[in-house]
Amino acid sequence: MIGRLNHVAIAVPDLAAATRVYKDTLGASVSAPLDQPAHGVTVVFVNLPNSKVELLGLLGDNSPVAKFLENNPNGGIHHICYEVPDIIAARDQLKKQGARVIGNGEPKIGAHGKPVLFLHPKDFCGTLVELEQA
Ligand code: CO
């Protein structure tokens, strides 16, 4: 069902500092910060030859990463994103197998302008999983 690893998302308490680590220390190509008010985050994309890392900073008062950063004050891996060819078919198949989809179960438009869904970490080895339609 799942295809490419689309990205690994890392929530960080200081987006500018994290961007410097990836740009200057690790020598990666990084994007400008992009506010995503619908998701409560500001994102910096780290472009790697075979995938991406997304640095997630808090945006606004109701950010979904606020609780995560409370528990992980230095930041940490927040989710991983796999591509699927058909997100509705993937959702329906996973639900049939008992997996929990977060929210109302309807895909939202994600950071790359494509439909995404999140799956409950308790069903996926303790890791929040994002599915993105390829
Ligand atoms: Co993501």
What does this structure look like?
By secondary structure, the chain is of the alpha+beta class. It has a single domain (5-133), classed as 2,3-Dihydroxybiphenyl 1,2-Dioxygenase, domain 1, CATH 3.10.180.10. 20% of the residues lie in helices and 35% in strands. Strands 1, 2, 3, 4, 5, 6, 7, 8 and 9 form a 9-stranded mixed sheet that branches. Strand 3 (34-36) and strand 4 form a beta hairpin. The longest helix is centred in the N-terminal third of the chain and has 11 residues, at 15-25. Residues 7, 9, 54, 79, 81, 111, 130 line the site of cobalt (II) ion.
Q: What would the principal axes of the Cα set say about the shape?
A: globular
Please, what is the average pLDDT? Answer: 95
Main beta-sheet annotation: 9 strands, mixed
Quaternary structure annotation: single chain
Topology (elements, then pairings):
Elements (H helix, E strand, L loop, with lengths): L4 E7 L3 H11 L3 E2 L3 E3 L4 E7 L4 E7 L7 H6 L4 E9 L2 H10 L11 E2 L5 E5 L9 E5 L1
Parallel strand pairs: 1-5, 6-9
Antiparallel strand pairs: 1-6, 2-4, 3-4, 4-5, 7-8, 8-9
The structure holds cobalt (II) ion.
Short description:
The protein has 3 helices and 9 strands.
Index terms:
single chain; 134 residues; alpha+beta; 2,3-Dihydroxybiphenyl 1,2-Dioxygenase, domain 1; nine-stranded mixed β-sheet; 3 helices; globular; binds cobalt (II) ion
